[in-house]
Amino acid sequence: MPTPLRKILHVDMDAFYASVEQRDDPSLRGKPVVVAWRGARSVVVAASYEARVFGVRSAMPAMRAERLCPDAIFIPPDFTRYKEASRLVREIFLRHTDLVEPLSLDEAYLDVTENRSGLPSATATAEAIRAAIRAETGLTASAGVAGNKFLAKIASDWNKPDGTFVIRPRQVQAFLTPLPVGRLPGVGKVMQGKLAELGIATVGQLREVAGEELELRFGRWGRRLHQLSRGIDHSPVRSERLSVQISSEDTFERDLPLAELEPHIRRLAEKTWDGYQRQRQRHPDRTPRTVVLKLKTADFRILTRSLTPPTRPATLDALADIACDLRDRVALPGNTLYRLVGVGLSGFIEEDAGSVQTELFDLA
After folding, report:
1. If you average pLDDT over every residue of the chain, what do you get?
2. Fewer beta carbons within 10 Å, N or C terminal of the chain?
3. What is the CATH number of the domain that holds 185?
4. Is the pLDDT of residue 324 over 80?
5. Residue 19's domain is classified under what CATH number?
6. How many domains is the chain partitioned into structurally?
7. pLDDT score, position 3
8. 3-class secondary structure for the chain?
9. Are residue 114 and residue 7 in the same domain, yes or no?
10. pLDDT tens by residue, 103-130
11. Are 11 and 137 in a shared domain?
12. 276: which residues sit within 8 A by CB, 6+ positions away?
């Protein structure tokens, strides 16, 4: 039986955090705004389109952004306001469908195959959503409209900012053919290099390779590549994505030895515990079994140490104590310095899922 045609939207807010800042402070409009703390360890959280003209991008070191755009206005992030704007946008989504899958504060998938607003098409629904976002939040969004999530996400980036792009079923093959393989989800620089060795640079060239050959070379991922090159993606829009891990992390102003990390670990444990309690209000039977300590050394080596105790961590103090104790599992020289620490909870189960077994494992 053929898979029924779906109508999927990917809605992506335009330069979201920077746009919130420009909305709330009219003096910033039309100017290069960089949302980031200043300092050697800071990274860019968001950049306005005026700053992007100079090459400033998210996740770029703030100092590099300042060199690229000396006139940039740096604004410390205010996630309370960003979360409130995101909440208002999601309320607009939910007027049209219950099938909303948030990916982050500023983007989400929507399945509008059966939309509750009675609009005649997915394109009309996308336009209605974008108009409501502009009217009710003072912000703009771009939307991609297609028959699956993969294509909708590509489409949302095609007519930015403040635009809609539609990929109709009859257009899929022609649209994908000239795209570089790097536009496919999961195809990073390493995979691009491997495909280049096979003479594959575009999606059209990838499509010409037999699926069996791709699977032989790349395993299950080869099969997935074969499907994507043909515009095939059966993954559903999931209305709620439960966290695999709840965590908090922080980069220090200066590198610290292991012995000085305890107050930072306990502070981050408190943030992680607060996040868990918020999730617990929605899912009271979902319980974490494992405590995770993450460390990044001054030379950017990442270490994680994890413990699943016989009894789940039931209090903030228990979480913090276990996370601090996990430092003893780090076997690096005592003079090693660390630039980042994180504390997480993972291994979530339903509380009635049976007894919990003791488990101790290290990852480096």
Report:
1. 89
2. N
3. 1.10.150.20
4. yes
5. 3.30.70.270
6. 3
7. 54
8. CCCCCCCEEEEEECCHHHHHHHHHCHHHCCCCEEECCCCCCCECCEECHHHHCCCCCCCCEHHHHHHHCCCCEEECCCHHHHHHHHHHHHHHHHCCCCCEEEEECCEEEEECCCCCCCCCCHHHHHHHHHHHHHHHHCCCEEEEEECCHHHHHHHHCCCCCCCEEECCHHHHHHHHCCCEHHHCCCCCHHHHHHHHHCCCCEHHHHHCCCHHHHHHHHCHHHHHHHHHHCCCCCCCCCCCCCCCEEEEEEEEEEEEEHHHCHHHHHHHHHHHHHHHHHHHHHCCCEECCEEEEEEEECCCCEEEEEEECCCCCCCHHHHHHHHHHHHHHCCCCCCCEEEEEEEEEECCEECCCCCCCCEEEEEC
9. yes
10. 888 999 999 998 888 899 999 999 999 9
11. yes
12. 246, 288, 345
Does the annotation flag 14 for ligand binding?
A: no
Q: Would the pLDDT of 350 be above 80?
A: no
Q: Which pair of tokens denotes residue 310? A: 């016989």
**Mean pLDDT on 37-47:** 85
Q: Are 5 and 169 in contact (CB under 8 A)?
A: yes
Q: Is residue 94 part of a domain?
A: yes
Which residues constitute the domain of residue 83? 1-167
Residue 263 falls within a domain, yes or no? yes
Distance CA 122, CA 59 (A): 33
Does some domain include residue 238? no
User: CB count, 10 Å around CB of 265?
Assistant: 24
Where does a domain end: 122, 142, 167? 167
Q: What is the CATH number of the domain that holds 332?
A: 3.30.1490.100
Task: Tell me which of 21, 66, 101, 107 is the catalytic residue.
Answer: 107
Instruction: Enter the pTM of the model.
Output: 0.68
Distance CA 165, CA 271 (A): 39
Residue 107 a catalytic site member = yes
198, 229, 260 - which closes a domain? 229
Does 234 fall in a domain? no
Distance CA(252)–CA(244), nearest Å, equals 26
Residue 111 assigned to a binding site: no
Backbone angles phi, psi at 288, to 5 degrees: -85, 145
Q: pLDDT tens-digit profile of 4-37?
A: 689 999 999 999 999 999 999 999 999 999 999 8
